[in-house]
Amino acid sequence: MKSRLIRVLQHLIQEAHGHASQPPSCHSCSHHMNPDYLSQMETWPQLETMRRLLCQRPPIPELPSQILDDIDAVITYRNNKAMLTSSTSIAPSIVLKPNNLKTAEKSSSKAINISLWKGDITSLTDVTAIVNAANSQLLGCFRPDHRCIDNIIHFAAGPRLRDACNSLMLKQGRPEPVGSVKVTPGFNLPAQWVLHTVGPQVNSRKSPGTLQQQQLASCYSSCLDATESLPGLPDGRKVVAFCCISTGLFAFPPDMAAKIALETVVQWCMDHPATSVTDIIFDTFLERDYELYEANISELKTNLASSGSQISFPPSPPIQPRALTTPTISKARSWLQEADYLIISAGAGLSAAIGLDYTSTSLFQKHFPGFLHLGLGRLYDVFGFDDWDSPNQKWAYYFLHLNMVRTWPASKLYETLRKLAARFDDRYFVRTSNADGRFVANGFPAEKVSTPQGQYRFLQCFAKCRPDAVFPSDPFVDAALPFIDPKTQVLTDETKIPACQYCGGELTLCVRGGDYFNSGPFRAQERKWKEYVDDVARNLDGRRAVILELGVGLNTPAVLRWPNEELVEDPSNPGFRLIRAGIGASGCAPWDLEEQDLAVGIEGDLNLVVKALVG
């Protein structure tokens, strides 16, 4: 598969060189055409390069059939690494039974299930159609940096989807009207069909007008009308999954959009008692949108209860939908079951999976509203930030951040990992680049965890005046919290600003961020880690050691990612295997290692991944 990917890249790069209309990119450099250079790139950058080139590529000229076949093979192989969720495992939030529906056509009617699910719509299986929020040209988004659903669906489906859309638009001869829909096959998607609908575009400084609200409602009703004409699934169901239409770059307010979507769909079901549609899924990607739909379902339940309606609202199940057991999951699970040694290697993606997401704007807005005026919007934005209004403000942020992390609730995800580690008795070790201390806080013994990047539970002298100028952070946090204004989030007592007990100088978090970092408190555990790896390597002799790498991306690959690969690649240690799981690059293992049966990559939510691997 690696060779097919390289062949695709060579063709697309050469083609881009020959088309002045192609947007400029770094791929105009001649060395990118060198097969040796392409083969030496990591798999994730290769896939990203292919994605970007396909995103910018117009449907004309057509791709050669062999290249199209190669692209299909590459995308299918990539898609098969994703965690898949069956529509059959998603419990309904609303059920409309035949005797609840209008008219006398009840004998031929089936119950209609309306569900809410949070996940990647391209990973949803056992669905008739998924909805794509398209633009009026209907050819997909040509901007690879846009994280829109149009881009996501087109890449997962492959370039044949753009070709199909282009054929429809050439035949139509005009832009697609807002509120209407076009149907294409799903190609490499699990869904059989894609419904492309154009939502209204809103001026972000104004509220949507009546026409725009009607147009958004029309998107939903048009998609349901189109689903009626599609063939059902083998089990007799007909399932359509909606994304959030117009709430991204088209700037329709998410709260109003959720209300319109839900009301329109419920009304359509009431007006079509003999519909062949059996299941309607509202898919949200953001937690914010999921909560908005939940709130609107609750409001609908209250309104209908007072009106005497018979529509039922089943209670939310305590267990979330389970991921399908794919061949990728089966292989990884068997590796863990057969392993004699376990290494858990964890990056920022694991913290994000339990809600400590340093890229989340909603998390920052919830816990740090007093710092938004500084232009900060995510926890990551604070790294290297030095434009504070005052030291009191700076340390108030640090204290609030440290307190948020140390009081973060226990996690089912870590509990499952602890259950996995217990299978190995003393034959496991944890190495993490995370400074949040979540492993120990969730019951892992401190002597089994190494944190080479530092820990929030320590403050250190910024000047490193002496090797032991490192202090527990908890006493400083406890002393300062009562003096932080809850509204402004500024420290009101400057005597609570910590200083080095030895030199009186500035303190800072004891985490790696520059030459100032004091690694002293973490060297002992790093030695234990190295001793553990050396001991495993010496004692393999036909045994297996599995590295379970969770949420390790490309920010600091030299800390965990590359060393893990080196362990697996080392011919003197043939017993190591790598399971790499997470979102994006964090879930992409080198394909050459996969072809040698030395690694497996799993793309998806780590809560689902770990649950599927461990049970």
UniProtKB/TrEMBL annotation:
* PROSITE patterns listed in its UniProt record: MACRO (PS51154)
The record's section on CDD domains has: Macro_OAADPr_deacetylase
**Swiss-Prot/TrEMBL cofactor(s):** Zn(2+)
Stored SMART domains: A1pp
What keywords would UniProt list here? Glycosidase, Hydrolase, Metal-binding, Zinc
Record-linked SUPFAM superfamilies: DHS-like NAD/FAD-binding domain, Macro domain-like
The UniProt GO MF terms for this protein read: hydrolase activity, acting on glycosyl bonds; metal ion binding
Domain (Macro) spans 101-301
What domain of life does the UniProt record list for this protein's source?
Eukaryota
This chain belongs to the protein called Macro domain-containing protein
Source organism per entry reads Aspergillus arachidicola
The organism's taxonomy opens as:
Eukaryota, Fungi, Dikarya, Ascomycota, Pezizomycotina
